[in-house]
Each structure stands twice: as C-alpha cells, then as structure tokens.
Design a protein that fits this description.
This protein has helices at 111-120, 128-143, 147-163, 186-197, 204-210, 215-226, 230-248, 253-259, 265-276, 280-289, and strands at 5-6, 16-23, 31-32, 36-43, 46-50, 53-57, 62-65, 71-75, 88-95, 124-126, 167-169. The protein is 42% helix and 18% strand.
Length: 290
C-alpha cells in the first residue's frame, strides 16, 4: 500500500459527482482528497483501510468519509488475476463542503446534517435498515438525469443519514492524518509486505530492515503514522481476515485461526474479542442478523 497521496477529483460543472464503478478491482492507491465521499460496495470483497481502521468489506458495505481522510478498498488478490472473470462494482458520491454555497450548512435547518458532516471526518458506516434504504436511494440517484432532482435527492439522503442511529465511527477519536504527499514509500513497502505475509511469523527485524530503519526507530515511526503500534496493526489485519473467513462460513474456527496467522486458538480468541468486542461465534451471529 502506498503512502496516501492527495487525490484531486476531476472538475465538473455540476455541484456534486455520482459515479457507478465497474472495474476488475477497486482503486489500489492509498489516498485522500478534500471532498466528502459516500461509497457503497455492490460487488466485490477485500479489506478496507480508512484512517486507522482495518475491516473486511463485501457487497452492501456503506461508508461516509470526511475530507482528507486516507482510505483504500483493497480487493482480494483473486480480483487482480486477469483470468478470474471477477469484477467489482460500487456507487460513489463526491461533494465539497460548500457545494451549495459557503453558508448553506450553517443554517438552523441544517443542524443535524452539519453534525453528520462533522462526524464523517472520523468516518462512518451504517448497518440494518438505514444501509438498505441508502442502497436504494443511491441506485435511484444514479438513474436521475434532472439536475435539480439530483440535488434534492442527495439532500434527502443526507437528511435520512443524519437522523439514523444505526451507525458506527470508523477511526479512533484521536486519529488525524499526519501523512504528507512528500512522504517516502516506506509505508507502501511495509503494508504490502504485511498483507502478503500476515499468515506467517513476521519478524520485526525484517520489517524494519525493509523500511531502512532500526527496529526501535521503525516502531516509533510506524506508531506516529498509523496511530497504533506495528503489532496492533498486524493483529488487526489478521483479525480482519478472520472476520472475512467467518462471514464466508466454509471453515471452522480452528481452521480460521491458523489461516489468519495465529498459532494457538486461545490467542486467536483473545485477540478477536479485544479487537471486535465479540467472540467469533457471536460475531457470526451478529453478521447474519444485519
């Protein structure tokens, strides 16, 4: 994964952008931009990285991101095989904070939407009925051609989201984007190596050497950039992979533990609960009820 780069959204005459995405895999570049982004995954699986949040994604994954929040939907490796026949699909909406004028969201009637926009700077995801309703609204939005109707539809959607309670914050409350476009590609090398080798025993000496640093210097560097220790990052990648395997439902918990890089079931169960707040079996039950 590359260090997040500032990504400019192409200029258009309209006040906001709606796109239907159909590609072999989602954009593999770790990036950020000054726009709000509402994104629905319609087809495809993988891991998503948003700020300091690491979670698996699949069809129905719905998130809302504030400006300059680094993000990446990393498709599973099978989607990079040109002979797999797999594709990813999604709907994305981009808009600037002043897309309806600099003071529009400061009006009294916009209090709840203004709070929604503020919360989006931490990243938001929805579940349950709100997610299903938003899926329908986004698909309808892609079909509308009248500009005025599109604006009304987006405002109605933001209003619905601002009243919903079935949401979760994605990043930790203290997260800030400390990465500058001038950063080296150190984090690129580290992320790629971990994502390729997380089922194996990972040596801190090897990772630090890859980054061209001593182990203590690398640990300090990584925590500053990722807002977590390197070992916490590895654990979250492994648990994220385990969550995906649990959702697929083809392996038992012992097999999933080994496939995700854990050598003992007790360690897997402990770290799974520490990171997700649930046991693996409770996680599966919760997922099936969404």
């Amino acid at each position: 994964m590359r260090p997040p780069l500032r990504k400019d959204i192409e200029p258009v005459a309209a006040s906001f952008i709606v796109k239907e995405l159909t590609e072999p895999n989602f954009d593999p570049n770790w990036h950020f931009h000054p726009h709000y982004q509402l994104f629905l995954v319609e087809e495809g699986t993988g891991m998503r990285f948003i700020g300091d949040s690491i979670k698996p994604f699949g069809p129905g994954d719905l998130v809302f991101l504030g400006p300059n929040l680094p993000h990446l939907w990393r498709s599973d490796q099978a989607y990079f095989d040109k002979f797999s026949g797999l594709i990813t699909k999604g709907i994305v909406v981009y808009f600037a904070e002043d897309f309806l004028g600099s003071d529009f969201f400061n009006k009294q009637e916009m209090t709840l939407v203004r709070q929604l926009l503020h919360n989006a700077r931490q990243g938001l995801e929805w579940t349950g009925e709100t997610r299903r309703q938003t899926e329908r609204s986004l698909r309808n939005l892609t079909k509308q051609t009248a500009d005025f109707e599109r604006v009304l539809s987006l405002l109605s959607l933001l209003n619905t989201l601002s009243h919903a309670s079935d949401y979760r914050f994605l990043t930790s409350s203290g997260y800030t984007n400390t990465v500058k476009p001038s950063e080296t590609d150190r984090m690129q090398l580290v992320h790629d190596y971990v994502l390729e080798h997380f089922p194996d025993d990972l040596s801190l000496d090897t990772i630090a050497d890859l980054a061209g640093m001593t182990p203590p210097a690398f640990c300090r560097y990584f925590k500053t950039r990722a807002n977590k220790t390197f070992s916490e990052f590895v654990s979250e990648v492994r648990i994220g992979h385990a969550c995906k395997l649990l959702m697929i439902g083809k392996l038992n918990i012992t097999q999933i533990s080994l496939e995700s890089g854990f050598r003992t079931l007790s360690n897997f169960n402990r770290q799974f609960k520490d990171i997700t707040g649930q046991t693996p079996s409770t996680y599966v039950k919760t997922y099936r009820e969404l």
